[in-house]
Design brief:
This protein has 275 residues and is α+β, with helices and mostly antiparallel strands. It folds into three domains: 2-76, Beta Barrel (OB fold (Dihydrolipoamide Acetyltransferase, E2P)); 85-192, OB fold (Dihydrolipoamide Acetyltransferase, E2P), CATH 2.40.50.140; 197-274. It is built from six helices and 14 strands. A five-stranded mixed sheet has the order 1-4-5-3-2. Strands 6-7-8-10-9 form a five-stranded mixed β-barrel. A hairpin with a 2-residue loop joins strand 12 (222-229) and strand 13. Helix 3 (151-162) packs parallel to helix 4 (177-194).
């Protein structure tokens, strides 16, 4: 047993020495580390140097030490394709973009390959467009973009979005449930951004306490807010600056300003329960 352990340690040592002398391919993000497999063990290495103009993407790297590597050059496309072929394939419908990263919802679950649950970021998807189906490869940490599918359907959906067609009103042969879901996400986001900032602020404050906004009316720096919780409708007067309660709509013995719109909701619930 001791001899076997010693042999394994010696073998790993030889592989480490050999690894330090060779270049390797890996996806490099703007901030983060690269992952390599050494002797069956996945190791992380910090990228300490990059050529001028290289921020992220597919790269050929060279180890500087056992913990650090430097980018030597951009990786050839043929090498990237071979690398991607090592990993299971999945599909994601591009729903929205955050910064430079697309997020996608799972397309129909494949019979084999990578199964995706929830929303997932798609790495290195610069060529991807909204509502296209991204073919991705999962390397154990990232969903790596490989190619795009269903461009015609994606283009039709983008046109419907510009016309502000509601998700339930989409009518197109071949439209899949994941594509409709991705469209609904984008449609709701756009509808939300069209709301006045004051309305969004009130809705967020009430939602934190499980209530919903019915209507509001600004006047002289104050907001008359009508809202609903547990089926009951209330009207309160709050400050337009920080939503501090000016008049709760019930008797609080002069303590109205001790609350804001969010913390007022449980007080109203308790008041109703006591009646």
């Amino acid at each position: 047993m001791a001899k076997r352990a010693a042999d394994l340690i010696q073998k790993l040592g030889r592989e480490e020495d050999e690894f330090l002398r060779r270049e390797f391919l890996a996806p490099v993000r703007a901030a983060g580390k690269v992952r390599v497999r050494l002797g069956g063990i996945v190791c992380e290495m910090a990228v300490v140097r990059r050529p001028g103009g290289f921020e992220d993407g597919w790269a050929i790297l060279k180890p500087v030490s056992h913990r650090e590597a430097e980018v030597v050059r951009a990786a050839p496309l043929a090498d990237v394709k071979r690398y991607l072929g090592l990993f299971p394939r999945g599909r994601l419908v591009a729903a929205w973009i955050v910064g430079r990263a697309w997020l996608g919802v799972p397309a129909a679950a494949p019979e084999k390959g990578a199964r995706v649950e929830g929303v997932a970021p798609i790495a290195f998807a610069g060529a991807l467009r909204m509502f296209e189906t991204a073919v991705v490869r999962f390397d154990g940490a990232l969903f790596l973009y490989e190619s795009s599918e269903r461009a015609a359907m994606a283009g039709w959906l983008r046109g419907q979005l510009e016309e502000d067609v509601a998700p339930a009103d989409l009518k197109k042969s071949g439209l899949t449930a994941p594509e409709r879901e991705a469209y609904a996400i984008q449609w709701k986001m756009r509808a939300e951004m069209r709301k006045p900032p004051e309305q969004r602020r009130l809705e967020r404050a009430l939602a934190l306490a499980g209530a919903e906004l019915v209507s509001y009316e600004p006047r002289a720096g104050l907001l008359t807010v009508t809202w609903r919780v547990d089926g009951a409708v209330h009207t309160s007067l709050v400050s337009g600056d920080d939503l501090t309660v000016v008049s709760a709509g019930i008797c609080l013995d002069g303590a109205d300003r001790d609350f804001d719109l969010t913390t007022l909701v449980p007080v109203l619930r308790e008041h109703r329960a006591r009646r």
